C-alpha cells in the first residue's frame, strides 16, 4: 500500500483466473482510499467480496451495461469495467469529495467510466435515462433509515429494465428477514442467496471477517414502468 498523503493511500487489488500471474487471466485494480473521510472513501469487506464475484462471473459482465449504487471507492464497478463492461459509477449527489475521488480512481486505472451523482429516493432527470443490465451495490444495506429509498430506487431501475438484476453484498447483522420484507414491499424477489465467503479465495478470506451475504434480486413480475 503506497502512502500519497497523511491519510490517503493507494491500495492494490489483484484478481486471478486459473493460471495465477497470466496476464490474460488476471487483473489489478488500484483504489484511492482516505482513512479519515467518511465511509465512501474506504474499501470495505463487502466491496472486496462483490468485486471478486464480478471477476469470477466476468463472462456475464463482459459487454453488459453496469450501474453501481453507493459506489464509494468503486472496486466492484472498476472490476466490471476492466473485464469489458460499460460502467456508470454513482454515489450520493451531495458527496462531492466521493464523486471526485471516483473520477480520480478511474483515471488512475485508465478506465472510461461514467461518474454521476445519484441520491436514493430522489428522481432527478438523469435516473430516467439509466437502463442497466446489472445493478451493483456493496454494503449499501448499512443504514436502515435509507433502506426504503434504496429499494425504491432499485425497484424503479428494474422496472425501467425488467430483465436486469440487482446484485448486492451486505453484512447480515439482523437476519435476512428485513430484506425479504423490503423486497415484498417493493415488488422484488430474491433469485440467489449465497455466503460471501463461499467463493472468496482463501488468501482474501483470511483478511476479512463478518457474516457477509451476496444476494441477486429481480422484479417479482415482468411489469415495467410506464
TrEMBL record:
Gene3D superfamilies per record: Vaccinia Virus protein VP39
Q: Which organism is it from?
A: Brassica campestris (Field mustard)
Show the GO MF annotations. methyltransferase activity
Q: Which residues cross the membrane?
A: none
Family the entry assigns: Belongs to the methyltransferase superfamily. METTL23 family.
Instruction: Could you list this entry's UniProt keywords, alphabetically sorted.
Output: Methyltransferase, S-adenosyl-L-methionine, Transferase
- Span list, region Disordered: 1-23
* Database matches in SUPFAM superfamilies: S-adenosyl-L-methionine-dependent methyltransferases
Q: Which PANTHER family match?
A: HEPATOCELLULAR CARCINOMA-ASSOCIATED ANTIGEN, HISTONE-ARGININE METHYLTRANSFERASE METTL23
- Biological process per Gene Ontology, one example term: methylation
Matches recorded under Pfam families? Methyltransf_16
Its recorded name reads Methyltransferase-like protein 23
Amino acid at each position: 500500500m503506497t502512502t500519497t498523503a497523511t491519510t490517503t493511500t493507494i491500495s492494490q487489488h489483484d484478481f486471478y483466473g486459473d493460471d495465477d500471474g497470466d496476464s490474460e487471466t488476471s487483473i489489478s485494480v488500484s483504489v484511492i482510499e482516505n482513512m479519515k473521510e467518511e465511509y465512501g472513501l474506504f474499501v470495505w469487506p463487502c466491496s472486496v467480496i462483490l468485486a471478486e464475484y464480478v471477476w469470477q462471473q466476468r463472462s456475464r459482465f463482459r459487454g453488459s451495461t453496469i450501474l453501481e449504487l453507493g459506489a464509494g471507492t468503486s472496486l466492484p464497478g472498476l472490476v466490471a469495467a476492466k473485464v469489458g463492461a460499460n460502467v456508470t459509477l454513482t454515489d450520493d449527489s451531495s458527496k462531492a469529495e466521493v464523486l471526485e475521488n471516483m473520477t480520480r480512481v478511474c483515471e488512475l486505472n485508465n478506465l472510461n467510466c461514467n461518474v454521476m451523482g445519484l441520491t436514493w429516493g430522489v428522481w432527478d432527470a438523469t435516473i430516467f435515462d439509466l437502463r442497466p443490465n446489472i445493478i451493483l451495490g456493496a454494503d449499501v444495506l448499512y443504514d436502515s433509515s435509507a433502506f426504503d429509498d434504496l429499494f425504491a430506487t432499485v425497484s424503479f431501475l428494474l422496472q425501467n429494465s425488467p430483465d436486469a438484476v440487482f446484485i448486492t453484498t451486505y453484512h447480515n447483522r439482523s437476519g435476512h428477514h428485513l430484506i425479504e420484507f423490503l423486497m415484498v414491499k417493493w415488488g422484488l424477489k430474491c433469485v440467489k442467496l449465497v455466503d460471501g465467503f463461499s467463493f472468496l479465495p482463501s488468501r482474501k478470506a483470511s483478511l476479512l471477517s463478518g457474516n457477509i451475504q451476496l444476494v441477486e434480486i429481480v422484479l417479482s413480475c415482468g411489469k415495467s414502468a410506464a
